[in-house]
C-alpha cells in the first residue's frame, strides 16, 4: 500500500483520552491521519487534536459497534488499570478483569463484523511469570518465557488472556493483529496523583512536594528493579510495529534497569533536592523486571532514543508544574488532595 493510500485510512484510538493514547493521537495527526477517539472521558491535560472524540464506555457493545463503523485501523489501548497501589492490592481485581476483558471482546467482534483491516493491542509486561522475576538483578522477560503462565496479578492474567483472544481472531477470522507488551511507560500528561499513578510519576510528585532534608516514602525495601520507557519512544515503536509485517507479541520497553531507591535518587538529582529515603510497607509486585529487547531489535530494528535520565527530566518538570498549580489552588490546605 502506498503512503498516500495509507493516509486515507480512518483510525480509531480506543483509550485516546488517556496517557499513552493521547500521545499516540498527537503522533497520528502529525502524520496526516484522520483519527477518531473513544474514551470514558476527554483528555485531562490537553485538548485532543482528534477529528472526532466520542465520550463513551467501550464495555457497551453498542458503543463499540458505533465507534468501529467506517474505521480501517484500530489502536486498542483502553483498559481498567493503574499503578501498584491500584493493581496489586487485590481490591480491584474483579472490576479490572471484567471491564478490560469486556472491552476487548466487544472491540474484536465489532472489528470482525466491520471488516477492520488491522488492529493493535496494548498488552503488558505484567503477563510474565512471577517465578522468573524473583531475583531483582536477573529477571527473565523474553517473549517466549511467558509460558508456563504465572502472572503476579489478575491484571496480568487478563492481559495474557486478551493476547490469546486477539491471536484467536487472527487465526480464525484473518484479522491482522499486532500485539505489544508495554514495560512501564512514563512521561508528561500522565496520571500523577490520586492512587493510580505509576512509580516514576509518584516519586516525581513526592520529590516536588517535599522540602530539603525531609523523608520520601518508598514502598518495600526499594531494591526491587524495573525498567522504564519514555512515552515518545513507546509511540515510535508502536507505529513501526503497526506498519510492519510482524504481529508479535513483542516487548516495547527499555533495558536500562534500575532499583526503585536509585530511581528516587535520580529524580532527587534532577530536582537538586537532598531527601532521606524512608522504606515503608506497600505493594511492590515482582522483585525484578526488565525488558528483553532482543526480539524487537531483530524484528523491527528499534531501540529507544531517550535515556531514563532524559525522560525523567522532561517528566519531573512537567509534574513540578502540576504540583505548583495544585499548591496554589489548595494553598490553605496542609496536603494536596488525593
From TrEMBL:
Keyword Cell inner membrane annotated: no
Domain NAD-dependent epimerase/dehydratase, chain residue ranges per copy: 11-253
InterPro entries in UniProt: Epimerase_deHydtase (IPR001509), NAD(P)-bd_dom_sf (IPR036291)
One Pfam family, short name: Epimerase
Keywords assigned by UniProt, alphabetized: NAD
Origin: domain of life: Bacteria
Keyword NAD assigned: yes
Name used for this protein in its record: NAD-dependent epimerase/dehydratase family protein
Amino acid at each position: 500500500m502506498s503512503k498516500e493510500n495509507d493516509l486515507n485510512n480512518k483510525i480509531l484510538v480506543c483509550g485516546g483520552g488517556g496517557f499513552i493514547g493521547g500521545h499516540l493521537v498527537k503522533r497520528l495527526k502529525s502524520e496526516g491521519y484522520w483519527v477518531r477517539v473513544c474514551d470514558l472521558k476527554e483528555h485531562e491535560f490537553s485538548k485532543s487534536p482528534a477529528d472526532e472524540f466520542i465520550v463513551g464506555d467501550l464495555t457497551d457493545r453498542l458503543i463499540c459497534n458505533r465507534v468501529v463503523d467506517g474505521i480501517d485501523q484500530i489502536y486498542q489501548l483502553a483498559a481498567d488499570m493503574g499503578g501498584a497501589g491500584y493493581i496489586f492490592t487485590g481490591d480491584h481485581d474483579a472490576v479490572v478483569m471484567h471491564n478490560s476483558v469486556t472491552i476487548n471482546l466487544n472491540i474484536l467482534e465489532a472489528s470482525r463484523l466491520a471488516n477492520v483491516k488491522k488492529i493493535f493491542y496494548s498488552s503488558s509486561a505484567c503477563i510474565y511469570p512471577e517465578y522468573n522475576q524473583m531475583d531483582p538483578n536477573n529477571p527473565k522477560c523474553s517473549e517466549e518465557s511467558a509460558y508456563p503462565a504465572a502472572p503476579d496479578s489478575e491484571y496480568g492474567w487478563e492481559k495474557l488472556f486478551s493476547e490469546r483472544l486477539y491471536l484467536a481472531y487472527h487465526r480464525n477470522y484473518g484479522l491482522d493483529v499486532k500485539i505489544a507488551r508495554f514495560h512501564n511507560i512514563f512521561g508528561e500528561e500522565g496520571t500523577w496523583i490520586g492512587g493510580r499513578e505509576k512509580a516514576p510519576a509518584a516519586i516525581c510528585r513526592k520529590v516536588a512536594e517535599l522540602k530539603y532534608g525531609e523523608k520520601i516514602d518508598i514502598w518495600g525495601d526499594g531494591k526491587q528493579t524495573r525498567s522504564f520507557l519514555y512515552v515518545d519512544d513507546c509511540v515510535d515503536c508502536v507505529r513501526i510495529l503497526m506498519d510492519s509485517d510482524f504481529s508479535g507479541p513483542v516487548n516495547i520497553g527499555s533495558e536500562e534497569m534500575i532499583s526503585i531507591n536509585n530511581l528516587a535518587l535520580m529524580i532527587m538529582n534532577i530536582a537538586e533536592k537532598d531527601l532521606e529515603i524512608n522504606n515503608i510497607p506497600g505493594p511492590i509486585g515482582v522483585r525484578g523486571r526488565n525488558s528483553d529487547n532482543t526480539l524487537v531489535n531483530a524484528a523491527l530494528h528499534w531501540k529507544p532514543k531517550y535515556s531514563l535520565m532524559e525522560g525523567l527530566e522532561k517528566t519531573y518538570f512537567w509534574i513540578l508544574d502540576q504540583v505548583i498549580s495544585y499548591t496554589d489552588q489548595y494553598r490553605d490546605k496542609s496536603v494536596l488532595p488525593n
